[in-house]
UniProtKB/TrEMBL annotation:
CDD domains: PKc_MAPKK_plant_like. Its EC number is 2.7.12.2. Keywords: ATP-binding, Kinase, Nucleotide-binding, Phosphoprotein, Serine/threonine-protein kinase, Transferase. This is mitogen-activated protein kinase kinase. SUPFAM superfamilies: Protein kinase-like (PK-like) (SSF56112). Belongs to the protein kinase superfamily. STE Ser/Thr protein kinase family. MAP kinase kinase subfamily. ATP binds at residue 85. It is an enzyme of class 2 (transferase). It catalyses: L-seryl-[protein] + ATP = O-phospho-L-seryl-[protein] + ADP + H(+); L-threonyl-[protein] + ATP = O-phospho-L-threonyl-[protein] + ADP + H(+); L-tyrosyl-[protein] + ATP = O-phospho-L-tyrosyl-[protein] + ADP + H(+). Coiled coil: none annotated.
Length: 338
């Protein structure tokens, strides 16, 4: 769930696979999946008393999701505005959803980057319910998806700034051994100053071991990389870092074309259609107006063989990204003008 809810249900096709008991029980991990009864000790210790739910006034609903709701909230005393994400792990009948909630709390607690949404505080309910509230920075321009709905498509110059900012966030996360696993326009938040930040870490993962196929099938199906479906054919094993790069490549294409790039505009896909498009479909064509730099960038992101895909760090040095930063930053800010 992003701070602004994804409004494209036809592309929110998530693979529901059972989690094996051995996943939750595996020992020796830096990050452990949490039993339903209690949150990790690191999450509980991260709660702080400098913010209280009673001090926050909910002024607007920003989104709904399986884990809880997100509100725009104002601090009654200071007037500061936040995004308040209320999580109810013990209300979830699905153990996987509970683990996703605790995982998001743990990852937000440990990240600190200008390109990742900032968590000001983790507030635990004073009752015995085990509920949590995440006090997040409020991004006042919505998401890249909502901006796309307003503008229909992004000019290439603005896309260079988008790619640069998201890649900086991914490079930071990957250096921390965190893979996001659900990069898409609705999970990339924007503020009026032109900043773009990665959000929604419910299906993210701390990579301290090789992911097995059974716990790699999470995220939004439409943006999954080919090796998520068939690691043996497309790279030999699932590489979460390369999967994030594939999702970024699709995101850049979608913003440029104005629609999801792997299917005809307006088509309502099912799971099988998406899998075939991702694994076997033709590479999306770009109009003649697209520059060679943009074509090359997309090609580096959308290699079906994960071993041939560029890393986030390598892509930060790609000519499409290193073009005049001043011009691309101004181009993106123009999209934010009313």
């Amino acid at each position: 769930m992003a701070v602004v809810r994804d409004r494209r249900p036809q592309l929110n096709l998530t693979l529901e696979l059972p989690l094996k008991d051995s996943i939750a029980a595996a020992a020796g991990r830096r990050f452990q999946l949490v039993p339903p009864a209690a949150p990790p000790a690191s999450v509980a210790s991260a709660t702080c008393s400098e913010h209280r739910l009673a001090d926050l006034e909910k002024t607007q609903v920003l989104g709904h999701g399986n884990g809880g709701n997100v509100y725009k909230a104002r601090h009654r005393r200071t007037g500061a505005v936040y995004a308040l994400k209320l999580l109810h792990p013990h209300d979830q009948s699905d153990p996987a959803l509970r683990r996703h909630i605790y995982r998001e709390i743990e990852i937000l607690r440990r990240t600190d980057s200008p390109h990742v949404v900032h968590c000001h505080s983790i507030i635990q309910s004073g009752s015995s319910s085990g509920d949590f509230a995440l006090l997040l920075e409020y991004m006042d321009a919505g998401t890249l998806e909502s901006l796309l709905h307003q503008r229909r498509r992004f000019p290439e110059a603005a896309l260079a700034d988008v790619a640069r900012q998201v890649l900086k966030g991914l490079a930071y996360l990957h250096a921390q051994k965190i893979v996001h696993r659900d990069i898409k326009p609705s999970n990339l938040l924007v503020n009026r100053s032109g900043e773009i930040k990665i959000s929604d870490f419910g299906v993210s993962k701390v990579m301290t071991r090789t992911l097995t196929p059974c716990d790699s099938y999470v995220g939004t199906c439409a943006y999954m990389s080919p090796e998520r479906f068939d690691p043996g054919t497309y790279g030999g094993s699932y590489d979460g870092y390369a999967g994030d790069v594939w999702s970024l490549g699709l995101t850049v294409l979608e913003l440029y074309l104005g629609h999801f790039p792997l299917l005809p505009e307006g088509q309502r896909p099912d799971w099988a259609t998406l899998m075939c498009a991702i694994c076997f479909g033709e590479r999306p064509s770009l109009p003649d107006s697209a520059s060679e730099d943009l074509r090359g960038f997309v090609d580096c992101c959308l290699q079906r063989d994960a071993n041939k895909r560029w890393t986030a760090e390598q892509l930060l040095a790609h000519p499409f990204v290193t073009r005049s930063q001043t011009d691309s930053t101004l181009a993106f800010k123009e999209l934010l003008q009313d």
